[in-house]
Amino acid sequence: MNAHEIDYRIYGEEMQYVEIELDPNEGVIAEAGSFMMMDEGIKMETIFGDGSQKDQGFLGKVFGAGKRLLTGESLFMTAFYNVLQGKRNVSFASPYPGKIVPIDLMEYRGKFICQKDAFLCAAKGVSVGIEFSKRLGRGLFGGEGFIMQKLEGDGMAFVHAGGTLARKVLQPGETLRVDTGCIVGFTQDVDYDIEFVGGIKNTIFGGEGLFFATLKGPGVVYIQSLPFSRLAGRVLASLPRGGKDKGEGSILGGLGDIIGGDNRF
Length: 265
Hints:
The structure is a single chain. The protein has one domain (7-237): Mitochondrial biogenesis AIM24 (Double-stranded beta-helix, 4-Layer Sandwich). It is built from five helices and 19 strands. The protein has helices at residues 57-66, 136-141, 200-205, 228-238, 253-259; strands at residues 7-11, 17-22, 27-30, 35-38, 42-48, 76-82, 88-93, 98-104, 111-114, 119-123, 127-132, 147-152, 156-162, 165-170, 175-179, 183-187, 191-196, 211-216, 219-224. The strands form four sheets. It has a six-stranded antiparallel beta sheet. The protein has a six-stranded antiparallel beta sheet with strand order 11-12-9-16-19-14, with no helix packed on it. A four-stranded antiparallel beta sheet has the order 1-2-7-4, with no helix packed on it. The chain is globular. The termini are far apart.
């Protein structure tokens, strides 16, 4: 194997974290900001890109890291190594409520495609690159644009899904229609495209957007019930205007604003 062979355990229900067990000299890479805790004997190192290719030279490393900017990620990733004898643990946490999904790339013939912000961490040696869409409709209306992330190699990777996770195994020719933001990732044989919802009432009053993502088998698809964009939108919509409390849960909420001096009327 080119990637380090790591063991892991996932803890929690709604706010999960994954604990990676490292043998001596084994390592794991992670996105900046996902680190939670580590044992004594774990060395942390900031690296260009994913560090999956050792002999590509400085310019090659810069180019490889620069591609990550297209997905909105940092040029740098963080690597964690066990530099002592015996097993050591390092843990990474979910960024918001949901599930951590372990992806064994060996089971998916060495490649898995996921949305840009889904990747959490992976065994050292797994390549974290970009996947370009060759279809104009998917690029313009697919929610994720022309670019998604691709995880390649023969090791373990971990992605995060918001809310509740659904795993669908599609048979050849079987099609699943999904909200574009609810896709976590899929295997390389899945055909991903965009379909117009259709119908005047659906388009104007449906409230579900103008396009579906269509996923055609064969392959495995992971779907999330709570995309971060939807969560963020609900939080922003519930914020009080002008920085003042709406008085939610109180019949006198509006009247209280008037008595309290909020003269907006």
